[in-house]
Amino acid sequence: SAVISQKPSRDICQRGTSLTIQCQVDSQVTMMFWYRQQPGQSLTLIATANQGSEATYESGFVIDKFPISRPNLTFSTLTVSNMSPEDSSIYLCSVSGSGGGTGELFFGEGSRLTVL
Amino acid sequence: QKEVEQNSGPLSVPEGAIASLNCTYSDRVSQSFFWYRQYSGKSPELIMSIYSNGDKEDGRFTAQLNKASQYVSLLIRDSQPSDSATYLCAIYSGTYKYIFGTGTRLKVLA
User: Fold this and answer.
1) What per-residue confidence (pLDDT) applies to A40?
2) Cis peptide before B10 (omega within 30 of 0)
3) DSSP at B106
4) CA distance to partner chain B, nearest, from residue A81 (Å)
5) What whole-number distance in Å separates Cα of residue B74 and Cα of residue B55?
């Protein structure tokens, strides 16, 4: 399985600010996925990031709020913009074991954001 | 709306017992099924994947899949306090979409 590193692991942010989360994979992968896990909830897919094209966002998530970059096959960033306390969550980067978008899904350590 | 349903628990079992976790799903065409373990404050960790009907064993873990009845289960034999965690069921529903259940919290009592 791929080794997935996320930064920061946690942060406390002020309302109205933005934070960028970085995700680094130790192998080249076609698809990267960004999930959100709100307290006590399951995982919700924010968007799918394919290298060389615009990210595909799920219903309820928009690019202005969660811009994503995917500059190469091993790296992606997710920005949480104009944060509010409702954005307090764990944000998870994930990739599939096959390197494409199917098969077993593996997660980074997560980035726990608290918005005051 | 494709769904994955799990009992939220907590499911409490004594140490050494078998823990049985269940999951039902609505998407009949799903072909890939996964169980993840998530400790509090940590990210999900894959523990089992299963793709065909029947049982799949890996150490103390057994995944069971019944596509006709649309359920998948996870058995943990000889449960240990270190197994106490939330267990997430997930399905791959196609087009790069993975759907996760809300998880079952397992407590193994020493």
Assistant:
1) 83
2) yes
3) E
4) 23
5) 10
Give the span between the Cα atoms of A96 and B96, in whole angstroms: 9
pLDDT band at A78 (very low <50, low <70, confident <90, very high): very high
pLDDT at B24: 95
Residue ranges of A 52-71 with Cβ closer than 8 A to chain B: none
Residue burial A66-83, b: 16+ Cβ < 10 Å; e: rest = bbbebeebbebbbebbeb
Q: Per-residue DSSP letters for A51-88?
A: TTSPPEEPTT--TTTS-EEEEETTEEEEEE-S--GGG-
- State the best of B6, B98, B99 to mutate against chain A, taking most chain A CBs within 10 Å: B98
Whole-angstrom CA distances from B57 to A87, B21, B66, B77, B86 are 39, 15, 15, 11, 20
Helices (H) and strands (E) in chain A, counts: 0, 11
> CA dist A93 to A105, B35, B62, B67, Å?
10, 18, 27, 29
Query: Which tens digits make up the pLDDT trace of A17-72?
Result: 999 999 999 999 888 999 999 988 889 999 999 888 889 999 999 999 999 999 99
Query: Helix, strand, or coil here: B60?
Result: coil
pLDDT tens digits, residue range B52-69? Answer: 999 999 999 999 999 999
**Cα gap A4→B98, rounded to integer Å:** 18
